[in-house]
Amino acid sequence: MERSSAAEEPHVVTARDFVIGYIDALNAVGVAMRAAITPLERLGDMRSLVRSHRIISRSGEIGTYSYQVHGAGCLFISDNGTEIDVDFAADGREIFDFWRLRCYGQSLPEPHDPTEQDLRSAVESLKPLLVEVRPGWFSVAETSA
Questions:
Q1: Which of 28, 54, 73, 126 is deepest in the core (most CB within 10 A)?
Q2: Cis amide prior to 111 (ω within 30 degrees)
Q3: Side by side, which strands form the sheet with 59-62?
């Protein structure tokens, strides 16, 4: 009886890897937006730029992303259809919840749909990288330079 090699086994993405993937995607969006919109210091500034009717409109395309600023945040869609939805706290920091993580997973080229329990365990395992800013809402911890 032959054993299957690891290369033949389907790639299993842990909930922790999945959350890290969302954070990486969010960071990539931030880099792309800051490079394209020079007055943008952080993604949370997009709301004020839209409200002031300067530089960007409520929705559009920048580089390989389309975006749509909504009430408390912004939905970014990469050229492969991956959705990175994020809200902004009053101080402008990027925050997300389990619903946004699951939407991200369902939009991936190979969709993933981890349970809320798995996501909770994943964000707990990522502390102190992630902080819970209010019940069920998370942010990447700010690092001091």
A1: 73
A2: no
A3: 59-62, 65-70, 73-78, 83-88, 94-97, 137-140, 130-134
Q: 50 pLDDT band (50/70/90 cuts)?
A: confident
Radius of gyration (C-alpha) of the chain in whole angstroms: 17
Token pair for 60: 């559009």
CA distances from 70 to 6, 57, 87, 120 (A): 43, 11, 9, 26
- Asked if 69 and 45 count as a contact pair (C-beta separation under 8 A), the reply is no
Closest by Cα among 127, 129, 125, 121 to 26: 129
DSSP 17: H
Distance CA 75, CA 107 (A): 12
Selected residue with higher pLDDT from 39 and 36: 36
